Structures are given as C-alpha cells and as structure tokens.
From TrEMBL:
Record Pfam families: HSCB_C (PF07743)
Residues annotated as domain J: 5-77
Protein name per UniProt: Co-chaperone protein HscB homolog
Gene field: hscB
Gene Ontology BP terms: [2Fe-2S] cluster assembly; protein complex oligomerization; protein folding
Keyword Chaperone: yes
Natural source organism: Pseudomonas borbori
Keywords, alphabetical: Chaperone
UniProt record similarity statement: Belongs to the HscB family.
Amino acid sequence: MGSPCHFALFELKPSFRLDLEQLAVRYRELARNVHPDRFADASDREQRLALEHSASLNEAYSTLKSAPRRARYLLALSGPELPLEVTVQDPDFLLQQMHWREELEDLQDSADLQGVATFKRRLKIAQDELNERFAVCWDDALRRAEAERLMRRMQFLDKLSHEVRQLEERLDD
C-alpha cells in the first residue's frame, strides 16, 4: 500500500460514500499543483518528486472514483491484503452471473440494442444496490466476510458493465 493513504491525499476520511463530483474538482486542483510541466525549470530531484506525486495522485483518484476499487482499498486498509482472484464461495451469485452472461450472449446474438439498454439499466440498479449494501457494512469488523463478498460481486458487475458498454459500441457501429 503506497503512502500516504489515498483518502489523505484528498483530505478525506476513509469512507465508501464519496461525492464523486467533489472528488473530481479536488483532483483537478491537486493535479494542477503537481503537474510535471510546472517543474520544467526545477532541479532533477524536484522534477522526479513532482512526477512521483502526480503518479500517486492519479492512482489515488482512479482508485477512489471506482466503487469496486474503492471498496477493495477500504478493506485492504482495515485488514489483510485481499487476493485478487478467489474462488467465490457464493453459489447464489454464481447462478446469477450465469444468467446475466447467457442473457448478454442472447442480446449479442440477436443484436438487440434496445434489449442491451434495458439490460444496462437493470445492471446499474444491481450495482447501486450492492454499493449501498457495502457502504452499510464495510467498516464493521463483524461483517468483514460479507463486505468482502459484496466487494467481489461489485468487481464482477463492474467487469460485466464494461462488457455491456463494449457490446453497445459494437452494435451501434
């Protein structure tokens, strides 16, 4: 885990619920201050430090603006490092994943752009519900296993959402 904490860079308390607009505004302010171009005439050391700070800021911002990455980061702050890939001990969700994948394949096969839009809306609702459930339990040590399970579900839905956008672009061409 890089230091300082991603939240500290933005002068925020560690929390799952963030105002993403406010985060983006703060990011742009901070990015302007450490942009490597501002250090063009500085010493090599100052240029390197500016570059490192800029990279840290970019990493922190991309982590905090993504709900699944933010969830994973919060869990990592409060406990042991989580393995990236795990076999999900979550049979109900595995079944749900299979249904979603089959539905997405059918939409692709039928080139149903309207169906893809409907699927995308349902997926967004599922993501919002997961985010809310995670927000409620992430900082409760007694609910750590539940929070980890929800975070993994969030990662899956984020990946599925990316695939839906790609399908939408292909069908739109």
